[in-house]
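From the pipeline queue, job 12 of 40. The input is one protein chain; the requested action is below.

Action: predict structure.
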Amino acid sequence: MAFYKLALEDMKPREAFALYASADFVDHAQSVGGTAERTLGFLEAMIAQSPQSRWEIVRSAAEDDLVFLHVRYTPAPGAPEIALAEIFRVEDNKLAEHWDVLGFPPETVINPNPRF
């Protein structure tokens, strides 16, 4: 959670990777490219494009070497919120792997229960 706060909430991904990610970090997100450096490039470009974006951890859970985050991502003030499920594998107290699932707002909402 400290990694996520520093990288995205505080918008300092390079510092977060230096502190919390393993040297051989692997990213499985399909839009990123697989390595820590490619993930950093992706995050830095996203932050530069949307400097007012906001990430908020809504809930978290951990099991064995996995950490799960349910995140509310708002690309810009007033923009529709995107739901993220972030999964990290931890090895030797460092982030070793990452997966994500994105949930864009549906056009029609049927369920009366909120996503967050």
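Job complete. The two ends are 18 Å apart (CA to CA).
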